[in-house]
Amino acid sequence: MWRHSAVIRWPFKWVYQELSCTGDSMDTGWLSRRQVDLIISENCTQTMSHSTQDAVARLQDTVADGRLTNSLYRQQQLAKLQSLLIKRESDLVNALTTDFCVTRKEAFVELFLTVSAIKSYLDQTLPQKELHIEYSVTRGQDASQIRQGIGIAIIEPQAHSFLFSTLSPLCAAIASGNAVLLVMKQNLRVMPRLVGNLLREALDPGIVEIVSSEPAEIPASIRANQAKDVKSPNSLGFSNKSLSVAIVDRTSSLGDAAQLLWKARTSFGGTSPYAPDIIFVNEFAKDEFIDRLLKCAAELKDAYDESWKDHPEKSKVTGSGLVEGSRCISSGVWGQVIDITDRHVLTDCRKLQERTFRLYPYRSLEDVVETVNSLSQEPNLATFAFGDAKSCKYILQFVEAEVGFANIIPIELLVGPAAPRGFSTNLSTRFSFDMFSVPRPQFAQATPLSSTLNALLRETTSVRDKDKLWNSLRPENRGPPKQDVGYFERGFLVGASTIVLPVVLGTGAAMFFVTKALLRRYGLGL
Asked: What is the 3-state secondary structure (H, E, C) of 86-111?
């Protein structure tokens, strides 16, 4: 059987159809005129339709010629790409709002964060400093900070925040000295083609190659597939299935917590991996929190008409998470609020990809910590704690999560993929040079330890010298660390003071008056 794709004209509409050998329509989808024009123009121009093997070969040639080891060259390439992104602002914002359920403001924020991430990589690329470190050995100095690119970075972005998820790791990989194989699936979206055209226009040939399928194993490569949670030495792992949870204590400002959680769950299409999947609310504050959440829905729902009017297929609530043991409190075009009444339902909760708020009440902080930690054997992706400072500290200390936040949900966190596992979470760029490079330290100076070891091997060590050696290795006796008075100790001191203090004062007063009376009796006076 064969399949043929075609763009055909229907009265007042354009239709994309996949036809089988029998002529039956296998898949049909409505297209905008803009998408059709782009497809036709792409078919009429020369595109990068080379095989994956050829693309890999070209990248390997680039790595072999060594141009990416030049930090000044890498800096120039990133600067050209950054300048082109700013120049094409209008096209990028329009494409983001066409392909994804985001507002124009959210699309601009994503573009701004992308350009900001490139600036961060440019600021970290210091040609003069790297040149100085490179020639440290010629001056008889150590160069322990030298790192070099792995070779080829294979990047497959996720759909959420497509522009940022594509260009932030791509630019980090280039800035680290790697060539990039960008894997983008063939579809009818505008953004993949627009990003591909921008990369071809801004960068020199051989730095980035675009393919539609992920290649097999490639020597000297690092993979960053944001759609998969791969655990291997040459891959960055992304916790795509790990939950993000929010814990709202009764000591929190419920209005502020509701507004922050509302924005996190509904912004950028409601598909951010860091948007809370379950919200745990103290049972005494649950009703008020729900009222505040529904108030946010009433006040802010108009902000989403712009992003959802062009995506009617996604404007309906799918009912995700509404199973036996849960009930829908309220729903609308803005989303839905689900109250989980059975604790066993929590074990079946999965990542959300829509504007749904799943609420579960808890009795105490100890109860919620135990409940959250029992949801998975692996740490949660993120924990958002709302409450006073002490409650937040307790929650973030004992709830297992890759990153924790106290009374805040940074907007930049909602843009882009989950931070790669095993690295510190960078809110603004999400990626770092260390992810795409390996250490290659160089040493030219002998250490004091080497001198000591050479002396031990060369000479006979006396008992006195051995005692000096052992004494030099013993830790300093700094005394016991100063400890704060604990809760129970403080209670004991308060209780003791209320009992002992009156006795001491009474005894002192009695002794004073007795002494005064004796002195008067014997005529000594006082």
From this structure: HHCHHHHHHHHHHHCCCCHHHHHHHH
What is the Cβ-side half-sphere exposure of residue 214, based on CA atoms within 13 angstroms? Answer: 14
Q: Considering only the C-alpha atoms of the chain, give the largest distance between any 2 of them, rounded to a whole number of Å.
A: 132
Of 242, 204, 184, 239, the C-alpha closest to 65 is 204
Residue 220 clears pLDDT 60, i.e. is over it: yes
Does the pLDDT at position 16 exceed 50?
A: no
Question: Number of structural domains, the chain?
Answer: 3
In a domain, 310, yes or no: yes
Q: How far apart are CA 474 and CA 398, in angstroms?
A: 34
Helical axes 89-99 vs 162-175, angle rounded to 10°:
130
What is residue 286's three-state secondary structure?
Answer: helix
Q: Assess contact for 96 and 269: CB atoms under 8 A.
A: no
Which 8-state DSSP code applies to residue 413? G
pLDDT of residue 22: 40
Residue 19 within a domain:
no
The strand pairing partners of 209, in sequence order, are 181
Distance CA 213, CA 52 (A): 7
Q: What is the pTM of this model?
A: 0.81
As a whole number of angstroms, the distance between CA 19 and CA 255 comes to 54
| CA atoms of 377 and 244, how far apart (whole Å) | 14
Q: How far is CA 340 from CA 315, 317, 325, 362, 476, in A?
A: 23, 17, 6, 11, 55
487 vs 4, which has greater pLDDT? 487
Q: Which of 31, 42, 78, 308 is nearest to 176 (CA)?
A: 78
* CATH value at residue 150: 3.40.605.10
Return the pLDDT at 310.
58
- Residues contacting residue 185 through CB under 8 Å, at least 6 positions apart: 192, 212
Structure letter (DSSP) for residue 361: E
Shared domain for 229 and 251, answered yes or no, is: no
Tokens of 412: 């930049």
